[in-house]
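Batch manifest line 765
LIGAND: calcium ion
JOB: complex structure
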Amino acid sequence: MAYTAPVFPADENERLAELAAIDVLDTAAEEAFDSLTRLAAYICGTPISLVTLVDAKRQWFKARIGLNATETPRDISFCGHAIADPDRLFIVTDASKDERFRDNPLVTGDPNIRFYAGMPLKTGGGSAVGTLCVIDRVPRELTPTQRDALVTLSHAVVAQLKLRRRLSRHEQYYAMLAHVSAMIARVTDIESLCSEACRAGVELGSLKLAWIGLVDSLSGNLRPMAWAASESQLAESAFPDVAGDPFERAFASEVIATKRPRVCNGLAIDPHTHANSLRQRHSLLASVVLPLVVNNTVWGVMSLYAGRRNFFDAFYLDRAAELANDISFGIDRLQKARDIHYLSFYDAVTGLPNKAGFEDKFETLAPQLHGGCLLAVGMEQLDKVGAAYGAGAIDSVLKQVTQRLQAHAPDRAIVALVRRRLFALFVPDEDPANFSRFATQRLAKALAVPYSTGDEEVGCAVHLGASFFPDDGKTIGALLTAAERAAQSARNLNQTFRFYNAKIDEMTAARLRLEGDLRKAISRGGLVNYYQPKVDLITGRIVGAEALMRWLHPERGLVSPAEFIPVLEASGLILEAGRQALARAIGDFCKWRDAQLDPPRIAVNVTATQLKDGNFMTAIQHELAAGKCNPLMLSIELTESSLMTAERQARGVLQELREIGILIAIDDFGTGYSSLAYLVTLPMDELKIDRAFIMKMTVEPAYMGLVNTIISLAHNLNLKVVAEGVETDEQANLLRLLRCDQAQGYRYGKPVPAADFAGMLASSH
Ligand code: C2E
Ligand code: CA
Ligand code: CA
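JOB STATUS: finished
ARTIFACT:
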């Protein structure tokens, strides 16, 4: 048997999508279509008339007169041929004489078709979805009137199909909108609102892809907030591609600028989009980008994509706009709720945390806190400023105070406005003396600069009071009360700053005096080096010396380093003082060398602050060069704890020092908690056992065992061992038996001034 099967139209995929969108296949018979078919059969005088829809493999009859079958295969269908030209009536006058249909089973058998006339039904922009056709079992023709009538009736069928679709879309989209409104009333955060809205759009709004992007208020860029897609593959590959797509961005910026939706109903034919493989791959053929307007500004955009051209018709756009409105409303509501939260924790004028916000931040910090200082900044004359220049001036001054506090406060500080006239600041883990210096020297000065109120400048006296955590209170409330009292008493005493706690106040004052004196001493050469010999335990000869800093105080005489080294450390003065000590040690060594005294290696004590200072290595090299000294004359002593605090920087610096020949010693070994096994991973040469072990060694056998272990472990690790604070012969003898290498202590000599040490060197030769 030979007959010609219909060819598929070029836009078959879109045609099928359109057919699917009409959503009429396999639905029950409807009178509207039945009556139009009856009319066609009546006017054309044929026994058979059909409304057919051409599906992928079959043609299905929505309405039929004179035929029992409900569908037939597409490859034997007449309508398959008819839809090839969607704008023309297709007529076969005698199928038995037509090459294409002579052997068609519908012609050779039941229903024995001879005559066929079918008008394509065009519901979309492209090919037809089906036909309205009339069929006869005998050959015949249609009069021009009958033809016109058939075409007109086909238009009526199309109108009916569209109406049908609109009615079902109505139901569908209103269901989507109802779903979204219910969801908006329920969600508590913007993120879930957005993702649920996208999901509803895809599932209930027949979309392929929906996504919401937030407009970054600074850069204007879009940040994807939520998305949903009909296929999981699309959801995975679409982001963040779509958001960054230049085409999408161009649409979005147009929408942001105009606050109006941007529709594109034929994405694939747009030359720009051809480049975008994602759209091609997933056949995203139509899109609309909708503005989400909150408070009159475009908060974000919602982009909807459909798999069919011309999908976004006027009806859909209206619904989409309603959807966007609903979403915008929901965002606005949630933002307001967030603002209410914001207002209960922040001051609206300055943006600083208010008392509740201050407490909130403090409480998150508290578990890790060891200490800290709270400062109350009382501003007395604010009322006068208000009376003279108006309430606006107060706000302006408050904002300026905020800026100054934020500019000067240490990084970790929390700045707050706890009451209308009371600023507060909390600095975690702060040393009182440093804090007092910060408050009086930086903050008080910064706050004393006049404030501008429009044309005028006004001064505003501030009184600062501080309390100390946890001594003066463990809660913000208690600390604030104490700090305010301190500020009050500062005011009564006409001072700028006071600590609440009199003891801290006194201690701080003493500390600051000491610091001032030390600063003077450093600049006037008031610090000197004493030297203490280190001897070889076997030969008893001087094999080294430790430089120990002394302060020649004009009134107090010789001050112990135990008192002033911590102050130098805390104030940062140690950098300069340490550099000077090093220079003196090298200078003294040079003098002894030039006097042919054959001086031994000199050890200088170095702290973590110095190690962490980037210039340490350069400073050492500079001093060595100045004295024309070989680095082999120098060793440095570091305590376990400085090594731990400077760990990261230390390793590299120590390596460099060692490379040029400087010897590294660990001071006070045994007082820290670091294990020897850990310490030896650092570059080092010598271990100094702390005096406490040497003292107890002769009284408590356990300590003797410990010292023994330390010495043998150190030797296994190729470290020289030095015993500190050796005072007695018994200690010296024991240490020699334990194979300790060197000793240092009063038994061999107390620390003495440089000139005296020169004498010791001379007599030892
Ligand atoms: P250190 O480095 O452990 O110094 C040894 C301390 O033990 C010295 O105290 C020394 O006088 C003392 N000493 C030595 N032999 C004996 C002894 O047989 N019996 C007793 N009771 N004590 C002895 P000094 O000079 O008071 O120094 C105390 C600490 O101050 C030093 O401990 C060191 O940590 C620090 N220091 C001293 N000079 C400097 C310096 O120039 N820079 C730095 N960063 N720290 C220094
Ligand atoms: Ca030392
Ligand atoms: Ca020591």
